[in-house]
Amino acid sequence: MSAKPRAEPTDERFDPEQQVLDRIEKARRRKPKVKEERKATQTLVEAVFLEAFRNELLEPLEDGAELPVDGTRLAFTTDSFVVSPLFFPGGNIGDLAVNGTVNDLAVSGATPQYLSAGFLIEEGFPVADLTRIVESMSNAARAAGVRVVTGDTKVVEKGKADGCYINTSGVGVLRTDHRLGVNTVRPGDAVLVSGPIGDHGVTVMLARGELDIDSDVVSDTAPVHQLVADLLAAVPDVRALRDATRGGVATILNEIARAAQVAVVVDEADVPVRTEVRGASELLGIDPLYVACEGRIVVVVPGARTEAALRAMRAHPLGVQAALIGRVVDDPPGLVLLNTTFGGTRIVDLLVGDPLPRIC
After folding, report:
1. Mean pLDDT of 49-54
2. Tens-digit pLDDT profile for residues 153-164
3. Which residues contact 304 (CB under 8 A, 6 or more apart)?
4. Distance, first Cα to last Cα, the chain
5. In this predicted structure, what is the pLDDT of residue 275?
6. Dihedral, CA atoms, 37, 86, 282, 222, nearest 10 degrees?
7. How far apart are CA 350 and CA 255, in angstroms?
């Protein structure tokens, strides 16, 4: 009886890297299920909410839904803010709530117009603090050119809402026919960020006083609608825009890779991170790529439009330090790869859980 031929060393079964990629791909193809120990936001969205509410307006899972209304295209978005502490260097929960919703509309390609504001306030919450929060919201709305036109207030028992929670929803007008979306990204595209990442998340963590670290870093909370408008005017064929809030830039890049079934390759040395943010992240044991921003955008443009996009962003105060951080390639589809400063390459995957909870 003849022996079966042995597999050559070049066989994929002997390639450790390919085995890892195969296992990751197999796991990602499974239908999302929620387990108590694994309540990642992405899993919840796909397994619970999208499964229950599935429709053509929700399925793109962009930062805002596009609504056709009597020949006009509107963008609609909503967000809730539970940041702790309520006040931090560079802002507070009030301007954060306005800027966060304005930015979700902006990266949908819309001109923000109207907001709602819902408050959950603890019994006994100081009126002076509430007044300060509402004044910040008013100033932020004025700066962004939007109006708060409706709202709601509920009071709950002491200890049930950490002082104050805020929900804001927003409506904006889409004035062009160009469709933005992570599923439009193609190999050869360039990935840009509008400035240093991680400022907001690190600022909030340090404001809690648990690390006993003094730092001059402040939150980057700001409305990006004019930066986006200037970018779209200069580069109307932008593929996709996202504001890198919870989960940071790494989460956005994974959403791009999975939606478009492409690979995103990032050069760590090109990612702008302030020294203070990098140092605090190292102490916390987290990667700055996963730390939230509240005034930074991730932009994907055709490769040939890279310089035009960078010029447009750098001409705006919020985009002075805009940078090219990576490229979109064919393979391996659905993955984000990081070329490290040490000369290696590693996978940047979606995190399970939140390394910095309650930062927005």
Report:
1. 84
2. 999 999 889 999
3. none
4. 69
5. 93
6. 110
7. 9
- 45-to-185, 252, 254, 353 alpha-carbon distances in Å: 22, 15, 15, 13
pLDDT band at 35 (very low <50, low <70, confident <90, very high): very low
Given this model, what pLDDT does residue 29 score? 54
Three-state DSSP at 347 gives strand
Contact (Cβ atoms closer than 8 angstroms) between residue 174 and residue 134 = no
Bridge partner residues of 39 (DSSP): none
Residues in the chain: 360
Three-state DSSP at 50 gives helix
Owner of token pair 């309540």: 39
**CB distance 319 to 311 below 8 Å:** no
Identify whether the C-beta of residue 192 lies closer than 8 Å to the C-beta of residue 271: no
Indicate the helix (H) or strand (E) that contains 43.
helix 41-44
Task: At 138, give phi and psi (nearest 5°).
Answer: -60, -45
Q: Do you find a cis peptide bond into 16, omega within 30 degrees of 0?
A: no
pLDDT digits over 104-116, tens only?
A: 999 999 999 999 9
Query: What's the rounded mean pLDDT across residues 84-100?
Result: 97
Q: Express each pLDDT in 325-349 by its tens digit.
A: 999 999 999 999 999 999 999 999 8
Residue with tokens 């207030």: 153
Q: What are phi and psi for residue 181, nearest 5 degrees?
A: 175, 145
> Do 166 and 80 form a contact (C-beta atoms < 8 A)?
yes
Q: Prior bond to 332 cis, omega within 30?
A: yes
Query: What one-character DSSP code corresponds to residue 3?
Result: P
- Non-local (6+) Cβ contacts of 268 within 8 A are 338, 339, 340, 341
Label residue 301 exposed, middle or buried (CB < 10 Å: 0-12, 13-18, 19+).
buried
Query: What is the average per-residue pLDDT within 285-304?
Result: 95
Q: Going by DSSP bridges, is the β-strand pair 240-243/190-193 parallel, antiparallel, or unpaired?
A: unpaired
